[in-house]
Amino acid sequence: MKQDDISTQGMGYLESLPRRVVTVYLPLGVFLVVLLFPFYWMAVTSFKPNGELLSREGNPFWVIEPTLAHFKKLLFDTPYPEWMLNTVIVSVVSTFASLAASVFAAYAIERLRFRGSKQVGLAIFLAYLVPPSILFIPLATIVFNLGIFDTRWALILTYPTFLIPFCTWLLMGYFRTIPFELEECALIDGATRWQILVKIILPLAVPGLISAGIFAFTLSWNEFIYALTFVSSSEVKTVPVGVITELVEGDVYHWGALMAGALLGSLPVAVMYSFFVEYYVSGMTGAVKE
Amino acid sequence: MQRLLNNRNFLGLLFMLPASALLLIFLTYPLGLGTWLGFTDAKIGRAGVWVGLDNFAFLIGDSVALLSLFNTLFYTVVASIAKFVLGLWLALLLNKHLPFKAFLRAIVLLPFIVPTALSAIAFWWLYDAQFSVLSWTLTKFGLIDRYIDFLGDPWNARLSTIAANIWRGVPFIAICLLAGLQTISPSLYEAAALDGASPWQRFRYVTLPLLTPIIAVVMTFSVLFTFTDFQLIYVLTRGGPLNATHLMATLSFQRAIPGGSLGEGAALATLMIPFLLSAILFSYFGLQRRAWQQGGKD
Predict the structure, then answer these.
(1) Across the interface, which of B28, B97, B266 has its CB nearest the CB of A12?
(2) Domain B54-294: CATH class, spelled out
(3) Is A56 a member of any domain?
(4) Which ipTM did the prediction report?
(5) CA distance B74 to B80
(6) Residue A23's domain spans which residues?
């Protein structure tokens, strides 16, 4: 009996099917239902007409007469498309800027090994641990004094505070896996450091760059507290902040439109993620493993 | 010039310039400024003057601030323990030989990658006092006879926000621990099984020790982000009912931005730092002792 429930891939074949159903498939099914139900509920709600939303009769888990009214309202009667555009601009610009800065920083720390590079590497890691919730108040005064309060620049310049430490840390780990010998050969052949970085290191580091880029993009897409604090006009809001602050006004909540907004706002990251799952997961676990 | 560009110290400095300039202006300086603001009576639109420990003395005597400290600790402890247990369980399940393994792993992570503010709205709708589908289901099964007021009652609200936080955090922990589990060689389990170890013993004496380093890192991140959580609470309850769900982060936002007392908000934010530091140090020393587990020296 003892071998029957050995819980590894290597010995999984020893388990009987009924036992596997109870110990593996059943709990896994419950996990999946709980983890995915809010998304299902989001989607169902966004297609429900208001009458169905607010009735207690019938089965709430299905839509009887699907409608696109909520999406129409969202796209034509609210500044939602503008928020979407802002989120895209802010996320893309801050991601690319952070990635560029991080490549140089990670290369310098990991390969140039200038005096004090170890300490700088540690400082980068510590910077990664500083949470935005303790920075937003002083940052708000800085943003205000710089005269960029309530502009996209406020977000583009502050997002790198959490993107650069993350990307640098990730890329440092990645650069470490590229053999030193390649660089030494290039140096002997008379290449400059710049040529080595552009022609040897970067092409080899493409997977690492994608991981860092995807992760940074989702982080900035999901950012909330800075966008809530540093921006107040509707024209420069991002999707998460716009949905929370402007669609939730008044006593009557427009659940359909809210859910449609949440669904549309989640879609870009979800699509992006589905294309690059492996990179995303390796980025996430890589940053933790180091 | 050419020689200068081949000097590693000069070039290192040059390469570090963009990243360190941004981080110094927008991270290090605000960190110092925030601490300084905590000792001033700054308001929005007015630079403050030094008031010493006044803000901190006020906060210690302020029942709402103390309540927020209690809430934060309760939220962090309960949510972190639950996330760890469920995350480890999910990781162990996903580590088995399963059909569609890659697909399962991909969709499990969805709650983590979707903007928290947006998924929190879905929870808000799930927790609605009148139209909650959770209450609907429970009523149909005859388990309750009145709809649950998820966010209207202090303890219900605390537990509901914790549940939403757990939902969001479990995938992250599970996927990270899964990455750790995959590095453990199956032959270790085979050897243990041949020696007569029970499944529990194999988990306790093989899996757990080998997983400890990664558990320490993952849980540090989890604790840090739970302790400083803002979005979920802001969307679900804004700290209500009766401040029962205010965390230190949401309270400091409320005091500083809508309330205008930058100094007081900054002081509250500064008060979070000792807790964060102790969490980091705890895990750092926890990790150090176990360097041998990663093949390092003892």
Answers:
(1) B97
(2) mainly alpha
(3) no
(4) 0.88
(5) 10
(6) 1-37
